[in-house]
Specification:
The protein is built from 18 helices and 16 strands. About 40% of the residues lie in helices and about 20% in strands. The structure holds 3-methyl-2-oxobutanoic acid and zinc ion.
C-alpha cells in the first residue's frame, strides 16, 4: 500500500461556514494561495450552490490555483452537481464531492427514507457526477454512527458507480479512536472493490478526538485526511492540519506515512488564517498556539536551556515559529533569569545572580510576568527616559466621520503629539503612535476580550507585533477599549 497520505484541506468549506469566519473572494484566494504553498493536495473551495458568492469563489480559486485539485461540495442532487461542475470549469484538476447520510439516525430522522432508497440515490449521484469530472469523492455522512454492514454496502455501491475517493466522516465527532480505526479496517477488509478507490477520513472534534480518530483511520488504511488549518470548523471544529502533519512526521519511523506538507509554512499559514478569519487560536493549541513553545515552570526552563529536546519534541523553527519562549514568572528559576539577563547584556557572577534572583522573586510575586524592562529596572537601569508612556489620547469617529486619533506620548520628559486618520478608531490610534515611535513593526495579533460581558466592562487587549522575525507581546486593560489598545500597542513597542 502507498505510504503517501493526501492532505484534503477544507478550511474554505467546513471551516469557513463557522459564524464570523466568512471571507470574501479576494481573501479566499489569498488563503488558497497560502494553502497551495503549504503543500495541500486537495483544496475544498466551497459549496457552489449555497450562494452566488460561494460559486464565484470556487470559480476564482480554480483560476488562481494550479497544483492542488480543486474540490466543490454538493448534495446528492442534480442541480447541486451541475452547479459544482460549472463552478469548476476553470480548474486544472476538478473534483466533485457529493454524498448523503449513511446512519439510520440521518436516514430516518433527517432524510425520512429507507436504506434501499439511500443506496439508489448514492449510486445515482456518484454516476451523475462522473458525467462532469473524472474525480468524484462520495461522502457517507454520519458514517461514525452508521451500521457497519450497511456502510460497507454503501461504499461498495458508490465505488461501482464511479467514486474515486470515499469519505467516511465522523460528522458528529462521536467515535473513539479504536472504534473509528476498526471501522476503516472493516471497510478495507470487507468491501470487494475497495482497491478501486481511496478511503478518506473526515473527523469532527466534539469530544476532542478528531486528530486521534483521523490518525487511527490512517493507520488502518485510509490514505486521505480531511483537515482545516487551526482546526476551525463546525461546532468544536475539524481535525487540524498542523496536528496531523506533525503527528505523521514525529512518528514517521513507526508509521511510515508521509505528506507533501512543507512544515516550515505551518505557522505563517496559521497566522494568516487567524487574521483573515478573525478566529483567535487558543494559546495552548498544539503546534500553533501562543504557548506551544513557551516554557514557564522553573524545572522546564532549566531543562530547555540545558538542551531544548528535554521538553520540546518539535523544533519551533521547523514549523516556522521564530523561537521558544522562556516566560519569566515567580515560577522561574535562576537558570531562566540568568539566560534572560545575558540576552539583554548582563553577565552575573553567582553571588550577584543570587541577590538579583531574590529581588526578582519579590517583583515576580506582584506581577504576573516579568519583562525585559522590569529586569533593566532591577539592574538599576531605570526605564524612565527609555520608554514611551501615553500622556493623552483623543479619538473622533462616527458613521459620518473618518476616524481621527490625536496621541501624545511621553519619553524622557519630552511630549510628542501626532494626528492620524484611519479606517476606524483603532487603526487611527495605532497609526498616530507609529508616527511618533517610528518602529517598523508588523501587527501579528490583536485580541480584545471583555472580562464580565457588561457594557461597563473592562476591555483586555493583547497585541503581538513582530520585527525582523522576532515577536513581542503587549497588554493593556481599560474600560475604554481604544485606550486599552493604545496601552497594549505602546507596551509591545517598548519591548522592541
Ligand atoms: O462532517 C461532514 O460530514 C461533512 C460532509 C459534508 C463531508 O462535512
Ligand atoms: Zn465536516
Amino acid at each position: 500500500m502507498d505510504n503517501k497520505v493526501y492532505i484534503f484541506d477544507t478550511t474554505l468549506r467546513d471551516g469557513e461556514q463557522v459564524p464570523g469566519c466568512q471571507l470574501n473572494t479576494v481573501e479566499k484566494i489569498e488563503v488558497a494561495l497560502a494553502l497551495e504553498e503549504l503543500g495541500v493536495d486537495v483544496l475544498e473551495a466551497g459549496f457552489p450552490i449555497s450562494s452566488p458568492g460561494d460559486f464565484n469563489s470556487v470559480v476564482e480559486i480554480s483560476k488562481n490555483i494550479s497544483r492542488p485539485t480543486i474540490c466543490a461540495l454538493t448534495r446528492a442532487v442534480a442541480a447541486d452537481i451541475e452547479c459544482a461542475a460549472d463552478a469548476l470549469k476553470f480548474a486544472k484538476r476538478g473534483r466533485i464531492h457529493t454524498g448523503i447520510g449513511s446512519s439510520d439516525i440521518h436516514i430516518k430522522n433527517k432524510l425520512k427514507t429507507t436504506r434501499e432508497n439511500i443506496l439508489e440515490k448514492a449510486a445515482w449521484a456518484a454516476k451523475y457526477a462522473r458525467n462532469y469530472v473524472d474525480d468524484v469523492e462520495f461522502f457517507c455522512e454520519d458514517a461514525g454512527r452508521a451500521d457497519l454492514d450497511f456502510l460497507a454496502k454503501m461504499v461498495e455501491t458508490v465505488i461501482a458507480a464511479g467514486a474515486t475517493v470515499v469519505n467516511i466522516p465522523d460528522t458528529t465527532g462521536y467515535c473513539l479512536p479504536e472504534q473509528y480505526g476498526a471501522k476503516i479496517a472493516y471497510l478495507m477488509n470487507n468491501v470487494p472493490n475497495i482497491d478501486k478507490a481511496i478511503i478518506s477520513v473526515h473527523c469532527h472534534n466534539d469530544l476532542g478526538l478528531a486528530t486521534a480518530n483521523s490518525i487511527a483511520g490512517l493507520k488502518n488504511g485510509a490514505r486521505q485526511v480531511e483537515v482545516t488549518m487551526n482546526g476551525i470548523g463546525e461546532r468544536a471544529g475539524n481535525t487540524s492540519l498542523e496536528e496531523v502533519a506533525m503527528v505523521l512526521r514525529s512518528h514517521q519511523e513507526t508509521m511510515h506515512l508521509t505528506t507533501d506538507i512543507n512544515i516550515k509554512k505551518i505557522y505563517p499559514t496559521s497566522r494568516l488564517i487567524t487574521r483573515l478569519m478573525r478566529m483567535p487560536v487558543q494559546p495552548n493549541k498544539a503546534i500553533v498556539g501562543r504557548n506551544a513553545f513557551s516554557h514557564s515552570s522553573g524545572i522546564h526552563q532549566d531543562g530547555v536551556l540545558k538542551n531544548r529536546e528535554n521538553y520540546e519534541i518539535i523544533n519551533p523553527h521547523d514549523v516556522g515559529v521564530p523561537e521558544s519562549l522562556i516566560v519569566l514568572t515567580a515560577r522561574s528559576g535562576r537558570a531562566a533569569l540568568k539566560h534572560r539577563l545575558e540576552k539583554i547584556g548582563f553577565q552575573l557572577e553567582q553571588e550577584e545572580l543570587d541577590a538579583t534572583y531574590k529581588k526578582f522573586l519579590e517583583v515576580a510575586d506582584q506581577k504576573k510576568e516579568i519583562f525585559d524592562e522590569d529586569l533593566l529596572e532591577m539592574m538599576g537601569q531605570s526605564r524612565e527616559g527609555r520608554i514611551y508612556e501615553i500622556d493623552n489620547l483623543e479619538v473622533h469617529c462616527g458613521k459620518k466621520h473618518q476616524a481621527t486619533a490625536t496621541v501624545t506620548l511621553l519619553k524622557a520628559g519630552e511630549k510628542m503629539t501626532e494626528i492620524a486618520d484611519g479606517n476606524g478608531p483603532v487603526d487611527a490610534t495605532l497609526k498616530a503612535i507609529d508616527k511618533i515611535v517610528k518602529q517598523e513593526v508588523r501587527l501579528e495579533e490583536y485580541l480584545v476580550q471583555a472580562v464580565t460581558g457588561g457594557s461597563d466592562d473592562l476591555g483586555k487587549v493583547h497585541i503581538q507585533v513582530s520585527k525582523d522575525g522576532v515577536f513581542y507581546y503587549g497588554f493593556g486593560a481599560d474600560t475604554d477599549v481604544i485606550y486599552a489598545t493604545a496601552k497594549a500597542y505602546v507596551d509591545a513597542l517598548n519591548k522592541v
